[in-house]
Amino acid sequence: MVTACARQRSRGSLAGLVAALVAVGCAAGGVGQSGPQQPTEPRPQQTRTAASPGAQTTRADGTTSVAEFTEDIDGAVRIAERYWAAQFRASGQRFTPVRRIIPYQREGEVTCAGQPVPRNNAVYCSAGDYIAYDVNWSVAAFRQVGDAFVFYLLGHEYAHGIQVRMGTRYSFTIQQELQADCMAGAYLGDSVRNGQLELQEGDLDEFRDGLLAVGDDPDQPWFAEGAHGTAEQRTDSFFRGYEDSLDACDLG
Predict the structure, then answer these.
(1) Residues forming beta bridges with residue 161, ordered by sequence position
(2) CA–CA dist 7, 57 (Å, integer)
């Protein structure tokens, strides 16, 4: 996945993209939450290859440089801001971008509502209106999974910022997270359709495979704090947004 203004380069598999997100604590101090959440643990049969790749693991196309990672982060932020600004403008509302995007390296280096943001994580913190991500973990995932990881990661966390701006309130975490999956799907699908992003043939199937491979343990109560939804629920939410845009996301 590349931005319209980026150079074309071959891309690795997206099958592990959403698998990486199983380690992401999504909305810290945000909608219905009081502080950073611990990363959700994968089911026993799942691997966390994208979240903690080996030092020698890289994509087949050789994308490894921090400069390329930074370029993609910047591109993802620009497209997210442009996308949501257009949505707010169409509804006659003023849009304010998420205030900051903060890379960090150590637990406690960044705090949200007085609580440390843990390593191997990415969060939206409503208390400070920022998205923070562990740069070492994110670069490692970028090297293994590819640049699509960056766009999904930013899209999902940015969706939490939009929920706050819209005053969205839910009683249960799972509602908030599935809506953010839908909004991330809409952001990606609409950006592909309007030419801002370029999607390689086969990437959607790999997205689907990745989404089906992750999700909450089926035995976890849906009302549990931190619940994100089963693999089927997350897949359905993401692709409803991707195919039908924001109309599918119950934004009210």
Answers:
(1) none
(2) 23
105 in a domain, yes or no? yes
pTM equals: 0.77
pLDDT tens profile 148-198: 777 878 888 999 999 999 999 898 999 999 999 899 999 999 999 999 988
Query: Which pair of tokens denotes residue 51?
Result: 């979240």
DSSP percent split of the chain into helix, strand, coil, nearest 5: 45, 10, 45
Q: Which domain holds residue 28?
A: 2-49+59-247
Chain position carrying tokens 């293994």: 144
Is residue 25 within 8 A of residue 112, CB to CB? The reply is no
Q: Which two tokens stand for residue 154?
A: 């930013």
Whether 46 and 213 have beta carbons less than 8 Å apart is answered as yes
d(CA 122, CA 167): 22
Tell me if 67 is assigned to some domain.
yes
Q: Is residue 196 part of a domain?
A: yes
Report residue 94 as tokens.
């003023």
Tally of structural domains, the chain: 1
Q: Could you tell me if residue 54 is inside a domain?
A: no
Q: Report in angstroms the alpha-carbon separations of 160 from 78, 88, 156.
A: 17, 15, 7
